[in-house]
Write a structure and sequence with these properties.
Helix content: 25-40%
Order of helices and strands: HEEEHHEEH
Distance between the termini: 91 Å
Largest sheet: 3 strands, antiparallel
Strand order of the largest sheet: 1-2-3
CATH architecture of the largest domain: 3-Layer(aba) Sandwich
Number of domains: 2
CATH topology of the largest domain: His-Me finger endonuclease fold
CATH class of the largest domain: Alpha Beta
């Protein structure tokens, strides 16, 4: 039972440079109806070939989605973060590869057990990385006189 002038003043407002925004003025700021131009664009990557979540390829689906029912959450998140690649050799993980979680900064040197300090490596890359670290630390302790 309100006239057009009252309805216009109550619900249609100028916000910034945009006129005729459907909004309310309550509290600290206006609550307004979002426009299409304000909606962020989300790009989607097509699924490769004939792949299916049911084909058993845990590596592909974990690195794509960041989760898989048969993959531990931490490993799935690391696969997604690393885009399916080993941080040591740079090769893609394949189905059947043995994956190991590694600390970037070792816990013995003050590294924490947080996601940002973890990385996934092939088992053989993890062995190579550790074998290169051991002689360096042993050599330093022998030179400094510590045993």
């Amino acid at each position: 039972m309100k006239n057009a002038y009252w309805i216009t003043n109550k619900y249609w407002h100028t916000i910034g440079r945009n006129n005729w925004n459907f909004a309310t003025r309550e509290g600290k700021g206006a609550v307004k109806l979002a426009s299409h131009a304000e909606t962020p664009i989300k790009r989607h990557v097509k699924v490769e070939g004939e792949r299916s979540p049911f084909d058993g390829d845990l590596i592909y689906w974990s690195s794509r989605m960041g989760k898989h029912p048969e993959m531990p959450n931490q490993k799935a998140l690391l696969l997604k973060k690393q885009m399916g690649k080993c941080n040591y050799c740079g090769l893609y993980f394949k189905d059947g590869d043995l994956l190991e979680t590694d600390h970037i900064i070792p816990k013995s040197q003050g590294g924490k057990n947080e996601l940002k300090n973890l990385q996934l490596l092939h088992r053989h890359c993890h062995d190579l990385k550790d074998s290169r670290l051991v002689p360096m630390t042993m050599g330093l302790s022998k030179r400094s006189g510590m045993r």
